[in-house]
Amino acid sequence: GALFIAEVALELDIRYMVSEWISAFNPQADLDLQIAVVQTAYANGSSTRYIEEVMKVPVHCVSTGVKHLHHKAQEFDVGVYFEANGHGTVLFSKEAEKKIRRMVLDEKQSKEKCDAAKMLANTIDLINQTVGDAISDMLIIEAILSIKGFTVQQWNSIYTDLPNRQLKVKVANRQVISTVNAGRRAVTPPGLQEQLDILVKKYKLSRAFVRPSGTEDVVRVYAEADTQSNADTLAHKVSCLVYELAGGVGEKPKPLH
């Protein structure tokens, strides 16, 4: 029921479910809408691969923060964005909404096209395009699961998240770290990114990045890999790099195991 979904929704991928739902009705309604998913570097690599390679929906990565996701999502007919913490929504451009509602009322179109357009129109009416409406997000997921005949367990089994680990390292000055490519590549201090790349190559399905906190003198570390042990080890080694090259203070990061 709704209460159970409210508890587990943040652990599952709302981006996948909503974008797959809209993408399914787009060709049926013959609307040729440009659909895209917008995310941050914290989105799990497994879900990114599924959306791009299986669903064939473009994925765009932006800097952390709802304002960045919202701005990028506005560039498309339909922009789906949810941060890893669950904050997000779906944006329909005014032109896309007009096309959808015209199709619903067009008596010359086939029943299949009109029905598909109705589903999209109902989706627009249900989703609150103002970010942060968790109740609206929950209701759209309830509706999609019900219509598709999916259980929460089936939703959760569509793909498996890669094991990951987030750590933070205290530094004297967080501004020593600067990044590009939506926070995924460190430009300063010199040599940090090059050594990070060498570490990442040692583990399967791995990636890692570092970014300065926006509020305190710490550097946040994210790592993922094929196993939890490898993700933990990679995160620890990256933390040690940050400590050594970015002016770490206090105790040196200790291994997790």
From TrEMBL:
<dbReference type="GO" id="GO:0006048">
    <property type="term" value="P:UDP-N-acetylglucosamine biosynthetic process"/>
</dbReference>
<dbReference type="InterPro" id="IPR005843">
    <property type="entry name" value="A-D-PHexomutase_C"/>
</dbReference>
<feature type="domain" description="Alpha-D-phosphohexomutase C-terminal">
    <location>
        <begin position="168"/>
        <end position="238"/>
    </location>
</feature>
<dbReference type="Pfam" id="PF21404">
    <property type="entry name" value="AMG1_III"/>
</dbReference>
<dbReference type="InterPro" id="IPR049022">
    <property type="entry name" value="AMG1_III"/>
</dbReference>
<dbReference type="Pfam" id="PF00408">
    <property type="entry name" value="PGM_PMM_IV"/>
</dbReference>
<dbReference type="GO" id="GO:0004610">
    <property type="term" value="F:phosphoacetylglucosamine mutase activity"/>
</dbReference>
<feature type="domain" description="Phosphoacetylglucosamine mutase AMG1">
    <location>
        <begin position="17"/>
        <end position="149"/>
    </location>
</feature>
<dbReference type="InterPro" id="IPR036900">
    <property type="entry name" value="A-D-PHexomutase_C_sf"/>
</dbReference>
<dbReference type="GO" id="GO:0030097">
    <property type="term" value="P:hemopoiesis"/>
</dbReference>
<protein>
    <submittedName>
        <fullName>Phosphoglucomutase 3</fullName>
    </submittedName>
</protein>
